[in-house]
Amino acid sequence: MPDNQHLKQHIVHLGEAHDAPLTRPPSTFVTVTALAWTCFARCKPFPLDDDLLLFFLADVRDRLDPPVDRGYVGVCLTRCLVMLPARELRGPLALLAAPAAVQDEIRRMNGDPANQQSHLTPIMLASWDRLMNVSGSSGFTAYDIADFGWGKPKRTEPIRMNHDGQVALMRGRDGLGVQVSVSLLQQAQMDDFRSLFLELLGSN
pTM of the entire structure? Predict the structure, then answer.
């Protein structure tokens, strides 16, 4: 996925045109995640009244008070869960509703980063077929990390993507764009997802 400034601008203009501006310009993570979630909602036959879930992890080392010591090398993550009706993710303002919902969850997490939200587990398990799980980050430089002196690899892919609705993000090989890897178990849905993704990416 190339640089997504065009899509970011489209999202901002969409909010301004409908008197519902975002609280801040969408980040690359918010933009790409919202786009993938919208495509997930549209490539599957969900009833319009179903609530669809988006799950991702956030690194909170810099958000805790006091912050985690710089020498700490372990994991410091918290869970984030976003929910919207399928109707909204299939509607004409999906690319406004989805980024706004993701931003709201990130804002909630920033306000209480230590809250692990244990109540989320039963919600997620009960709604597994309606959940899109995002791992990685648009800032994760996998291609640089995998350069062992012979240059960057031609292609890097997560090998543990075998569940329906999995999405993995990493910075593109060129260091500018974002690589989006998607796992959908039905070929027809995967084809629809790809078509929708490219169509919405070119929205204007």
Answer: 0.89
